[in-house]
Write a structure and sequence with these properties.
With 445 residues, the chain is an alpha/beta fold. It has helices at residues 26-30, 38-54, 70-75, 82-92, 94-99, 136-139, 142-152, 217-226, 241-244, 272-283, 300-306, 327-331, 333-342, 358-361, 378-383, 392-405, 418-434; strands at residues 3-10, 59-62, 112-115, 125-129, 159-161, 179-182, 191-196, 234-238, 255-258, 261-265, 289-293, 312-315, 321-326, 349-355, 371-377. It has 17 helices and 15 strands.
Length: 445
């Protein structure tokens, strides 16, 4: 049976903005409150999706969330008409208001953790939305993320959906940004790597001191239980606390994996060799390629600035691997030189393709942040909602939809405009019809 890894990219929403909300995310903080371009951001994302589709990859679209989140503001005590809720929240609680306007759901690497059917006891693909408890603005996402995923992967014969973990930092879960999977073939059993920042129930263990460790060991364990994974196919590794304190808020900022490749910075993990040995042991006869980038070649600061590791490593239909990198990697002399040398090393990675995703990069997320990976079989692909899969027709339809509904520029002050909320809801309602999602947003219910 044919099998492959599909990428589902987050479609940037009509209220895309730079709020600088994410403490620990250097890129996010450095561009706070600058004007954004929702139309440009959405089109950059669509161009990347279409390019991967044209390469022969299975590429899907994951719908954005509604922002401003009026329902969250009402829960916090703001009342009256939608216009009054917006006005009062912006005036009386501006920081809360900005949080409820966050564009962060565009980074679908944080939408959920996904385990393919080759790994699970019931041979279904399992989804657990991330609770994202460390940041209030992100904690607003999991219910709607779950609704959208259920509307996309809607055949109970093939897909299993779980409620997000408890809304408590002891079970802080950041989703696929701290998870990767190794395998020889996408359809067979693999080894799932769960990366965490701290132990929630043991304060004596190493932890960062400057920036928060968002993902806990206990959350990793809970997801493995929900997904019915075998202990022989699980590896846990802890992020290096020092690297978190340098602005590496998720593991996908400092490491990325695909099939039998792990591309990582030497400072990424604690007890690195022990973890790599365990991965190789559990991979059995499949020879792993552990590609370590030394600090002398690329510093952590450069890795964070260019998002060298927040790249996609994909296996193309002809069997060789390519890196999908932001143009910031090409523009940085040292990083570009490293990538040029990488393709000539004795590894499966033979090509680097650069993409302009600057609107996302300025908000703190690169190509890997924008996509959720789902390894699947042809039968499972045929069972999902076909309307979310990229095609020439969908690409054209969504570009026209963006042109119709998105503003070219958006400032922080625009977010309190009631007309923007109306425009956004009109756009999202139409999008759910294009993608045949049904009613997934609170305003539709």
């Amino acid at each position: 049976m044919k099998h492959f890894e599909a990428n589902f990219d987050g479609l940037v929403g009509p209220t895309h903005n730079y709020a600088g909300l994410s403490f620990g995310n250097v890129a996010s903080l450095s561009n706070a409150k600058e004007s954004s371009s929702p139309r440009q951001a959405a089109k950059q994302g669509l161009q990347k999706m279409k390019a991967l589709h044209d390469m022969g990859m299975v590429q899907g679209v994951l719908a954005p969330q509604e922002r401003p989140d009026i329902f969250a503001l009402r829960r916090l005590g703001f009342s009256g008409s939608d216009a009054k809720v917006l006005e009062d929240a912006a005036k009386k609680a501006p920081q809360v208001f900005r949080a409820c306007c966050s564009a962060s759901s565009m980074w679908t690497a944080n939408a959920a953790t996904v385990s393919p059917s080759g790994d699970t006891a019931d041979n279904k693909i399992h989804f657990t939305p991330a609770n994202l408890t460390n940041k209030y603005h992100r904690s607003l996402e999991p219910v709607t993320s779950g609704n959208i995923l259920k509307a996309m992967f809607n055949d109970e014969k093939h897909f299993a959906h779980h409620q997000h973990l408890p809304d408590n930092e002891h079970f802080g879960d950041e989703g696929a940004a701290n998870h990767t999977r190794f395998c020889s073939e996408y359809g067979g059993a693999g080894v799932e790597l769960f990366v965490f920042g701290r132990y929630a129930f043991d304060a004596s263990k190493p932890a960062p001191t400057k920036f928060p460790a968002r993902h806990t060991f206990e959350a990793c364990e809970a997801v493995t239980r929900l997904h019915q994974l075998n202990d022989n196919n699980i590896v846990y590794m802890q992020q290096n606390p020092n690297v978190i304190d340098q602005g590496v808020f998720h593991n996908d900022v400092i490491a990325v994996g695909n099939q039998n490749v792990l591309f990582y910075h030497e400072q990424a993990f604690l007890n690195t060799q022990q973890g790599l040995d365990e991965i190789q042991r559990k991979m059995g006869d499949t020879q792993m390629h552990f590609i370590k980038v030394d600090t002398a070649d690329v510093s952590v600061e450069e890795a964070v600035k260019t998002y060298l590791f927040n790249t996609q490593v994909i296996t193309l239909p002809d069997g060789h691997m390519a890196i999908i990198a932001p143009t910031e990697c090409e523009e940085n002399e040292r990083v570009h030189a490293y990538l040029q040398s990488l393709v000539n090393m004795n590894t499966p990675i033979k090509e680097v393709k650069y993409f302009d995703v600057k609107q996302s990069m300025r908000n703190g997320g690169g190509p890997a942040c924008l996509r959720l990976r789902v390894a699947m079989t042809e039968q499972e692909k045929n069972a999902l909602n076909q309307n979310v899969l990229m095609s020439e027709a969908l690409f054209s339809t969504l570009n026209s939809w963006v042109d119709k509904h998105y503003r070219d520029a958006l400032s922080e002050n625009d977010l309190r405009d009631p007309q923007l909320l109306i425009e956004s809801r009109t756009a999202l309602d139409e999008l759910t019809q294009i993608l045949k999602l049904g009613s997934v947003y609170p305003f539709q219910l």
